[in-house]
């Protein structure tokens, strides 16, 4: 009997514990990734108050999506902390697709990070819904940060109705990575700015042998067919917000691109992570990859030894998809002054040059790109900067993330050979236009 | 006298009543806060075209449901979800039953086996899927390497529309077998030894013993396992989410209702439409479970 009542009490106690645990995590249910990440960092930051600081100790959450850049940014944050002893920066890394889920949950639940990266795909939603701090006046008043120092195209991405909601952090272009060793073996000339589509195609043909594919043509837009579309004078989205997938020039470029897969010169690749695995393991001799892969590729021994990078080939003209991230501040941050101080530092000559020196990313600040070029001795990374002159801003509208996925779904059958490129492109244009019509 | 008796009776029922509610309160409160209220909110949200960040929702009546009826992807997802459940539930339970019966006897190293079978349940699904993803990898995976050593051509385990669902079902079965086995083991140990002794005397064979004694007597546990596995299988998400991207050619053949809900609600910012999709799943699960409750009278035997 006594044993029974004891077990009863134990069960009850357990049930209560479970209940309180549920209650405690209720906030986490509505904002899972954000909450899961913040609580440990926030509590870790709290006790770190130093009396020497004078002011109140402030911990800022800084959210980014690229783990490759974390190391360099941490270093910059450490230096910033040393100069501003009362501010502590906690960097939170979340992978690209989960990042936006996390940010959306944070924005809905009122727990956005203080400072975070913005992207052309998403800026409209965040800016138009007042989720970002208007930086216009602060930039005007600032000695260190000025929009004049950055390319106008990048500034424009983060400008909504005349107000600036983020300051460009970096830019990126797409380069043609090629296996020098295989080129030497085949007696081929390395790719350079004179290369045309035919050169690329012929080289891919020659290099496809012994289980290695000549070229990597994945179902990927930015590091794939977008570049060819613009090289051919086509477009993805017209200035009046209509799909460009039914433009004959676009279709022609897609046909050329898909041709690599259908002719067996490229593996059929659909997964995002798979692309880098293939090139890092020497399964493909050439591939299109953005400048942000640089640190990952440099760390890979095989790539560092055998690969190099060149500008993209041309058709009607030269083109490379060009984009840039921005640093934004949450509209409801508790520490707008400190957050601004950090963003101001990141956008200043000093911060931008440091970012380039550390090889974090190609700094958007005028002239800082050269520092980035000399930060990497492994590859001829100047190619990425050379392409800026004819770079095409990554196509975007107010709901980019939606129609990009829809277009992928429509183009899939062309890659797998189940439908013609013409039909797939027509279908892509149709569903993209439907999606654009729903845009406010 | 009778009056006094009545009062004593009443206070006793009252205290029993209070105790009863007190004891189930933890579960009830948890259910209401975490399940019942959210279900209501989801049903409500499914009538709206949702605005960004939970602001500016527009009431659209049953538009989301109408749109759903004309969305081929919803029908794909519905079919995929049912196919997944039909693959995983019978196979995993049959296998779990086999293992449970074997491990219920006098096997050497019994607890080691039990632990080994239960490990997949303890491992994080995301981590497990990453490992399986490498096994299935088209170019570098162990499975295709094995096939090439045997002189067979490579299989696109995760991108071939005809194969991908089976690849996913294998992971699903592999990860729940251990859990089902433990439940069934508990059921098996409830069966009194006398029955087996009596059947021994009567000279029943092993198979006969299983079908005449074990199966009927473990049927209440089996029923519980079938119902919960079915519900769990129809809510499949993590494995498919980790393995199949939207760009994958097998996407239409593998996307489950929950995955479709996730994409619509969180990737395409259409929480209203996403809510409508999960309401469909809720109704589906209710129907399947109701059928099972009806049919159980035919095969479940309570002692």
What does this structure look like?
The complex is a heterodimer of chains A (440) and B (303). Chain A has 440 residues and is of the alpha/beta class. Chain A has 21 helices and 14 strands. Chain A has a five-stranded mixed β-sheet, sandwiched between helices. In chain A, strands 9-8-10 form a three-stranded antiparallel β-sheet. The longest helix of chain A has 23 residues. Chain B has one domain: MetI-like (MetI-like fold), CATH 1.10.3720.10. Helices cover 77% and strands 1% of the residues of chain B. Chain B has 13 helices and two strands. Chain B has a two-stranded antiparallel sheet with strand order 1-2. In chain B, helix 7 crosses helix 9 and helix 9 runs antiparallel to helix 13. The model of chain B has no long low-confidence stretch (mean pLDDT 90). The chains are: A alpha/beta (440), B mainly alpha (303). At the A-B interface, helix 1, helix 5, helix 13 and helix 20 of A face helix 1 and helix 12 of B.
Write a compact overview of the structure shown.
The complex is a heterodimer of chains A (440) and B (303). Chain A is of the alpha/beta class and 440 residues long.
The count of strands of chain B amounts to: 2
Q: Which two chains share the most extensive interface?
A: A-B, 41 and 27 residues
CATH topology value of chain B: MetI-like fold
- 3D shape of chain B: flat
End-to-end distance of chain B, in Å?
43 Å
Task: Enumerate the spans of chain A where pLDDT stays under 50 for 5 or more consecutive residues.
Answer: 1-53
Summed up, the domain count of chain A is 2
Measured distance between first and last alpha carbons of chain A: 69 Å
Average residue-wise pLDDT of chain B: 90
Q: What distinguishing features does this structure have?
A:
heterodimer, A: 440 residues, alpha/beta, D-Maltodextrin-Binding Protein, domain 2, 2 domains, 21 helices, 12% strand, globular, disordered N terminus, B: 303 residues, mainly alpha, MetI-like fold, two-stranded antiparallel ribbon, 13 helices, 2 strands, 77% helix
């Amino acid at each position: 009997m006594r044993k029974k009542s004891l077990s009863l009490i134990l069960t009850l106690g357990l049930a209560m514990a479970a209940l309180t645990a549920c209650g405690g995590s209720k906030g986490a249910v509505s904002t899972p990734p954000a909450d899961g990440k913040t609580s440990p960092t926030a509590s870790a930051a709290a006790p770190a108050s130093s009396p020497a600081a004078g002011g109140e100790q402030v911990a800022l959450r800084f959210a980014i999506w690229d783990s490759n850049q974390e190391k360099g940014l941490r270093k910059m944050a450490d230096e910033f902390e040393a100069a501003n002893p009362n501010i502590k920066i906690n960097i939170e890394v979340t992978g690209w697709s989960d990042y936006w889920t996390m940010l959306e949950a944070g924005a809905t639940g009122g727990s956005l990070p203080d400072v975070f990266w913005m992207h052309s795909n998403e800026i409209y939603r965040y800016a138009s819904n007042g989720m970002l701090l208007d930086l216009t006046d602060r930039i005007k008043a600032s000695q260190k940060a000025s929009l004049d120092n950055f390319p106008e195209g990048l500034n424009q991405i983060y400008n909504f109705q005349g107000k600036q909601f983020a300051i460009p952090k970096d830019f990126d272009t797409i380069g043609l990575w090629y296996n020098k060793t295989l080129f030497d073996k085949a007696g081929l000339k390395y790719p350079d700015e004179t290369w045309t589509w035919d050169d690329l195609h012929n080289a891919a043909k020659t290099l496809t042998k012994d289980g290695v594919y000549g070229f990597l043509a994945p179902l990927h837009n930015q590091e794939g067919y977008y570049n060819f579309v613009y090289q051919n004078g086509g477009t993805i989205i017209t200035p009046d917000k209509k799909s460009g997938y039914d433009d004959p020039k676009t279709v022609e470029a897609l046909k050329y691109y898909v041709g690599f897969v259908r002719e067996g010169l490229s593996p059929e690749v659909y997964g995002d992570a798979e692309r880098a695995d293939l090139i890092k393991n020497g399964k493909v001799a050439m591939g299109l990859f953005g400048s942000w892969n640089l640190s990952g590729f440099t760390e890979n021994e095989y790539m560092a030894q055998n690969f190099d990078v060149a500008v993209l080939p041309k058709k009607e003209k030269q083109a490379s998809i060009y984009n840039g991230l921005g640093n934004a501040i949450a509209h409801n941050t508790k520490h707008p002054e400190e957050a601004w101080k950090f963003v101001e530092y990141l956008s200043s000559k000093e911060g931008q040059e440091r970012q380039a020196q550390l090889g974090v990313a190609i700094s958007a600040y005028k002239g800082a790109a050269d520092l980035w070029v000399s930060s990497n001795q492994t590859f001829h990374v100047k190619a990425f900067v050379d392409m800026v002159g004819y770079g095409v801003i990554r196509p975007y509208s107010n709901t980019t993330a939606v129609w990009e996925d829809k277009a992928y779904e429509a183009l899939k059958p062309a890659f797998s050979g189940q439908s013609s490129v013409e039909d797939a492109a027509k279908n892509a244009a149709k569903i993209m236009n439907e999606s654009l019509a729903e845009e406010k | 006298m009778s009056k006094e008796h009545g009062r004593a009776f009443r206070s006793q029922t009252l205290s029993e009543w209070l105790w009863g509610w007190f004891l189930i309160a933890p579960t009830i409160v948890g259910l209401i806060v975490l399940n019942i209220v959210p279900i209501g909110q989801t049903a409500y949200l499914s009538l709206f075209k949702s605005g960004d960040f939970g602001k500016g929702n527009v009431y659209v009546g049953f538009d989301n449901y109408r749109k759903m009826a004309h969305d081929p992807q919803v029908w794909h997802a519905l079919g995929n979800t049912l196919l997944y459940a039909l693959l995983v539930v019978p196979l995993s339970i049959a296998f779990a039953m086999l293992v449970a019966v074997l491990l219920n006897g006098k096997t050497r190293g019994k607890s080691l086996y039990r632990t080994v079978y239960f490990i997949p349940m303890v491992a994080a699904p995301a981590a497990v899927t990453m490992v399986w993803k490498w096994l299935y990898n088209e170019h570098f995976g162990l499975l295709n390497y094995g096939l090439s050593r045997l002189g067979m051509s490579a299989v696109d385990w995760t991108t071939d529309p005809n194969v991908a669902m089976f690849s996913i079902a294998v992971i699903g079965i592999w990860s729940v077998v251990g859990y089902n086995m433990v439940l069934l083991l508990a059921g098996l140990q409830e069966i009194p030894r006398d029955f087996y002794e009596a059947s021994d005397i009567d000279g029943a064979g092993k198979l006969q013993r299983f079908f005449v004694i074990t199966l009927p007597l473990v049927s209440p546990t089996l029923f519980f396992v079938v119902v919960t596995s079915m519900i769990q299988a129809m809510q499949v998400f993590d494995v498919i989410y980790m393995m199949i991207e939207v760009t994958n050619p097998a996407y239409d053949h593998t996307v489950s209702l929950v995955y479709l809900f996730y994409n619509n609600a969180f990737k395409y910012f259409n929480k209203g439409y996403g809510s409508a999709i999960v309401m469909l799943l809720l109704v589906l699960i209710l129907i399947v479970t109701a059928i099972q409750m009806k049919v159980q009278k035919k095969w479940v035997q309570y002692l």
